[in-house]
From TrEMBL:
Residues 141-278 form the GFO/IDH/MocA-like oxidoreductase domain. The keyword Ribosomal protein does not apply. This is 1,5-anhydro-D-fructose reductase. SUPFAM superfamilies: Glyceraldehyde-3-phosphate dehydrogenase-like, C-terminal domain (SSF55347), NAD(P)-binding Rossmann-fold domains (SSF51735). Keywords: Oxidoreductase. InterPro entries: Gfo/Idh/MocA-like_OxRdtase_N, Gfo/Idh/MocA_oxidrdct_glycsds, GFO_IDH_MocA-like_dom, NAD(P)-bd_dom_sf. GO terms for molecular function: 1,5-anhydro-D-fructose reductase (1,5-anhydro-D-mannitol-forming) activity; nucleotide binding. The gene is afr_3. Residues 5-129 form the Gfo/Idh/MocA-like oxidoreductase N-terminal domain. The keyword Nuclease does not apply. The lineage of its organism: Bacteria, Pseudomonadati, Planctomycetota, Planctomycetia, Kolteriales. It comes from Kolteria novifilia.
Amino acid sequence: MPKPLNIGMIGYGFMGRTHSNAYRKVNNFFDLGHKPVLKACCARSEDKAKAFADQWGYESIETDWRKLIERKDIDVIDIGSPNNTHFEIATAAAEAGKMILCEKPLAMNVAEAQKMVETVKKAGVPNMVWFNYRRVPAISLAKQIVDEGRIGRPFHYRATYLQDWTIAEDVPQGGAALWRLDAAVAGSGVTGDLLAHSIDTAYWLNGPITEVTAATETFVKERVHQETGKKEAVKIDDACMFLAKFANGSIGTFESTRYARGRKNYNTFELDGEAGSVFFNLEDPQLLSFFEYRNPEGQKTPSHLTGWRDIHVTNSEHPYMDKWWVPGCTIGYEHTFINALADFIGGLDKGEPVKPDFEDALYTQKVCDAVLESAKDGQWKKIG
Ligand code: SOE
């Protein structure tokens, strides 16, 4: 019989929904020693909290996150609220001895993230950041392929993360749905929101970045702020491109924008090495493209058989897939959160930490801050 794991969910937006869905489903598919119990959800508006609790099955509501953290019947604080709330909530939750599952990006900047790492370490509380894309089976398979030595010496890493939902000039900034456009709430634009994902994936697959140089652009300079009703300067980066040098000697390019007409959630990477290459595109999430030039035993693929192969990542031998349907049946976006949660609970069962944790997310924050710093003067910045 799994032990109850009492969840206190803060936030009721897109991420509140993805996380709540994971809590509800995880034990239906994974054999785990703990089972999430949806104890309480928290939102400033009582009506919104009630509606969210009814929709997802939370037993109770709070309208003040501090009260939620004080509750003895809560084991895990899930932070799915906007970025400018993460620091205060995570610090209080860790000091109260709660486990923490935090949305990305971890913080508004490195100074906050650094303190958050120190606080969770001092408190000794299990923690994880919801960089869910590590749990796309095809991306986990790419990691396996890299670890098996099938890429060999890496030369190039190429990431893009493109969307198009902010092109219209009349999209406002601020408020419940559009806080991602408000620098005071989001911290940054595509760098923290989208490139943070790309950096986390790159870190996992290709190791740390040591230096970056970047350029950013803000295409629409003023937007109406939903709270003041007035036009205000837009202070986020609408687009960001950066060059990177990795500790392993490879070099990388990263590009992100919310102005790529037709691109909705085009999150891709390619890693090119001496022995082979891998390519992934989130808009075809069940596929991993792999080119093998030489296998880890040193044998070259015969020339007449070389070519990119699209691996349909749905076999039970593929990461996570034995937990889902029969081979050939795909899983989707929401399952990446369920897979992530299963890893977190699996770690809890064994008493082992699970990645990506606050420390990994601090590293991503360091890269994001260096990218934004470099965009100001165009100079290369070292990752501290
Ligand atoms: C932005 O549009 C967004 O919702 C990000 O905030 C998420 O992290 C990403 O996974 C999908 O796009």
